[in-house]
Amino acid sequence: DLRTLGYFYLPYFPIVENTLGSSALLMNHLHFLPIGLFPKLLPCFADSLISVWLLHYNRFDATFRRRAAWIYAFCPLTIILVCLDGQWDSLWILPMLAALALSVQTRDESPDKYRTCLIIGLLLGVALVSKPVALVVAGLLIPNVHSRESFTTWIKELMLIATGAILSVAAFFVMFASEGIDLRRNLDGVIGYGASPGFIVFGPAHLTFFHFLSHLHTNASVIGEFRTFAVIYVLGIVLFQVFSKTPIDTMSAAASI
Fold it and tell me: 145, 151 in Cβ contact below 8 A?
C-alpha cells in the first residue's frame, strides 16, 4: 500500500509524490527536525544550482555573471516560492536552463552535435516530469531550419531531441509503475488539473482595467481570453525561432515567455 510508504495522490507527475513520500519516511525516523525541512531541501538545492549555473555560464564576462548569480540568489520571489512556500519550480527550471544553453551549441558544426541533441532531449524529459509547465518553453529547443546545412540534418537533430525526451519520460514512468502508482489516474489528474480554470490564472486577468475584454458575469472569463493570447504569443515566438533566417537568442526568448 503506497499510503504506508508516505505516498499520497497529487495532480502532478509522481516526482512530487516521490519527494514528499521520501520526506515522510525520513521524518518517521528523525522526529527532532522540522516537518517542512525535507520537502524543501531538494527544490532549494536545485535553486542554488541555478545560481551556480548563472555564475559559470560563459556567455557573459565574469563580473556580470557574479552579479547575476548574487541577484538571483537573493531574489525575494525565488526565496518566497522555494524556501518559504515550498514550490518545486526549480526542479524543472534547472534542467530546462541546461537544455536551452546546450541548444545554442548545436548551431555549431561540432562532432558532438548529435550527442548534445540527445542530452537536450533527456533534460527536456526530466523537466517535463518535474512539472508539465516546462512544455511552454520546450518549443524553443526545436533547431532553427536555416542554421542547418540541410533539411535532413534538421530532421535528424529534431528526432534525437524527441528520442531523448521520450526515453527520459519513459524511464521515469517505468519507475513510477514499479512503485505501484496508477499511471492512468495520474495522467487523468494532470490533464484535468491543467484544464481547470480555477488553477490557471494569468496574472492581469483579474485587473478591472481588462474587464471590458470579456463578459465576466456570464459564462466566459478574462482568464480564458488571456490564456488564448498567451498561447498565440508562445507559438509566434517558437515559429519565429524555427524559421527565421537569423536565429534568435533562446535564453532571451525563454525569459520573455
Answer: yes
240/186 Cα distance (integer angstroms): 34
Q: Are 235 and 256 in contact (CB under 8 A)?
A: no
Residue pair 172/15 in contact (Cβ under 8 Å)? The answer is: yes
Helix (H, G, I), strand (E, B) or coil at 75: coil
Output the pTM of the full model. Answer: 0.77
Task: Collect all residues with Cβ–Cβ distance below 8 Å to 169 and sequence separation of at least 6.
Answer: 125, 128, 129
Provide the residue type at 30 as one letter: L
Instruction: Give the cell for residue 119.
Output: 542530452
Q: Looking at residue 107, what is its pLDDT?
A: 66
Identify the pLDDT of residue 35: 67
For the cut 80, the answer to whether the pLDDT of residue 193 exceeds it is: no
With CA atoms as reference, report the closest residue to 201 among 220, 221, 232, 223.
223
Per residue, what are the HEC states of 222-241? HHHHHHHHHHHHHHHHHHHH
Mean pLDDT of the chain: 77
CB 121 within 8 A of CB 165: yes
Mean pLDDT of the region 69-76: 88
Rounded Cα gap, residues 148 and 174, in angstroms: 35
